[in-house]
Request: fold
Amino acid sequence: MSFPRTKPDVLQNSWPYMADRHMMRLGAATFIALVGVGSLMTLSARTGLVQILVLATLITLAQLIAVPAPSGDRVFLGVGMAAATPLLLGSGIGMPDLYGTSAVTAFGLAGAWIVSVARTGERRRARTRFVSEAIAMVLFVVAFFGIEYLLLGSGALLDVVILGSVAGGAMAWYLGRATANALIGLEEHQLDVRYVWLLALEDWPVALSLFASGALLGLAWPQMGGWSIAAALLPYAFTHLAFMRYDLTRTTYRQMIRALARIPEVADLTPDGHAVRTAKLATSVGRELGLNPEEVEELEYAALMHDIGRVTLNEPAIIRAGYTSDDIARWGAQIISEAPYLERAADMVRQQYAPYRQPGVEKDESLPIPSKIIKITSEYDRGVHDRGLPPIEALEQLHRGSAYEYDPSIIASLRRVLVHHGVVAA
Amino acid sequence: MKVLNGQVISKRRVAIQFAVVAGVSISALILTQSFPKPFWLWASFAGAMILFEWRATEANDRLIWSPSIMIAFTAAVVFGRGAAVLGVVAMELLSPLTPADIKARRFFQPFANACQLALSATVGLSLFELFLPNGPVTPDDLWLIVLGTVPSVAAFYLVNLTLVQYAVRMVYGKTDIKPWSNLGQFFLSYLGMGVLGSLLGAAYLAIGAASLPLIFVVFFVGHLMLSSYSALREAQESTLRGFIKALEAKDLYTRGHTERVAHFSTVIGEELGFNGTQLERLRWAALIHDVGKLAVPRELITKRAKLDAKEYEQMQRHVHLVEDLLAEVEFLAPMVEIASNHHVHYDGNGYHGSNHNHGDTPELEACILAVADSFDAMTSTRSYRVALTQEYALSELRRNAGSQFDPIAVEALASALLRLGETYGSTDVVSEDEARRLAEQLAVHG
Reply:
């Protein structure tokens, strides 16, 4: 894991997600399918109805608890309980109850849907999540049993069968969740699929600890009874706490960068709010272009602090001596590079005024895309908020400079983002 | 707790003493105990312990994670009576030597640590063995095992602490290490880790080898998240530090001021027995105490003449704006409050921040910051006067103790500087008038 990774606020914004109606319909259809499958499975299950309902309730309850994951999203604990279920239902003796496990998972998820509708009312993110969690959990059950039957057939050791099935199921859940998030959570062009997929893949530590604790619980229960809860859940609880601390620190780190980035604004050296607006626009463009989550985050820091070099303009001697935009970029990069872990952001800031072309060269390939994004979004924001141009006019100004200064492919991306936000007409 | 690297005074003596005691106790163990079987089981626990020690994170006073204690107790339960102590001691002996030590040819420290850990484990786990059943562990034995971890962890921890203190005192001649401030908290988290460890050991006995990867995954993720967390916290502090350093660097006269004030505040806090969290708060407050000035036009800050009322107001407005900005960063809010009160006098007079009533005594942290700030102001050269001597600065602080400054903080600074043997300021400028005259001469000639 690399750091400092702070919460990408894409998941806090609701705009990238499908319209309410779609998600409501999709969620309701999933719910009906789950109840149907669950009832059918209960009929053929070896496990009794009471036990199925108890375990399903446990999944529903666990699904109410979430841990903040490295991607900035949350992972619900239901999957840990789902991992324990097949082991509780007889996998320890090598004959797992497929129908019982499927019924428990289906009812557990159906319960989670009812709770999420009751709790969140009209919030659409809960629906999106419900559908992708349901798909991922079903994939877990399918993969678990597929691998279990394969391994049992090959006569492997029982320990290998159990661990192999849990690991295979976990892998299916992990990839399935990332893919479902990337495909369902999006409207067409606003976020690159690659970006969301890579983002969801960052949650592997949470997945690891949830599946390991769930499997430990499922395996230890028959011998240890209540003690197994302590043995499996206490270590998990500690890890949960560590996740929360980590998440909190990431939030405050980001807040701190934001606060420091506003120093030139407070000193009346840049227009108020310019840093935050530029950062918001720049990260939207970065995501639209499909940069890596890591790059988008560095872009956000760089965009927030792209004018920090202007604090130097407090120095009367410097103003007398004269300066250029490149000087400001260089001073800013110097200040930022004092902070460890922000070297790449410093590089982005250093090159923020460089034109995208060089004489005789079609396109300067060595220039990082994030620098070009900052150049364009900052200029756009200055056009709109400093010079008071209408958005479409500010965009036109950029187009006029696209022969040398501004990269047309990034202006096109900015236009798509602005169209999506409804700022300029399509 | 570990023996730290530093200067040598009597390494050899300590090494011999430790080696003799550890050697005797290990010989006794070899005679009385059998080595755990099968070997691969011991090796996997030993491997896990070594790996976690190599990637050890610095103990953080908010959340303490000691996987080695946990692994020790898991292994002890798994190895069972008759093999637990020897097995764990053998693991502890291997754990302290890291690749970094080998590369730097640092052998004393790992050696001393191996000896003291072996001794602590011998004492702690011999006690623990009394609570282990003779035959296989059943769920009914678990109460006794969990109960047994309490005295065992306590014994382990006490021996460990005593030996480390002894070694540090003998080798580095330091008598002032205060590991006792977070004692309770450390003990509680070690205890928690010990209990978890023995429960996981019982889970292994119940489930068999399949549980081993699961247990290590839980260990590993917890460790990973905690080290990411503490690395991020460090990144956060060094980011702020770096920024302030870079911003300050523009002004010749205040260059390094923040770093020095943070240093003085920390030593005063240490002298007054602050614990980790309090020190951290104080250090952060010191780091941000002048951030507001970064947003003030330079000509106002470096102005030689006294500011007129309008200029003063302009300066305060900028300072306030930055403080409001930083107070929005949740965890900085209490530090911003301390920082904004560092101009309040001990008797309640003076300039204060928005959330302080005139006439109230400011909190101790703000008083410390005020002393540290004034001390650095007097012992460093400013645009209007050159640096004064440390004696002058301290006597000036003492003269105003009780009115402007908190007498406790002033005396703490004086004794801390004496203890550390640090001297600041000029060697010969002993009066304010002389200092101002010299600065004017410099301005004319330079």
About this structure: Chain B has two domains: 11-231, 249-445. Residues 81 and 129 of chain B are 6 Å apart (CA to CA). Chain B touches chain A through 63 residues (CB under 8 Å).
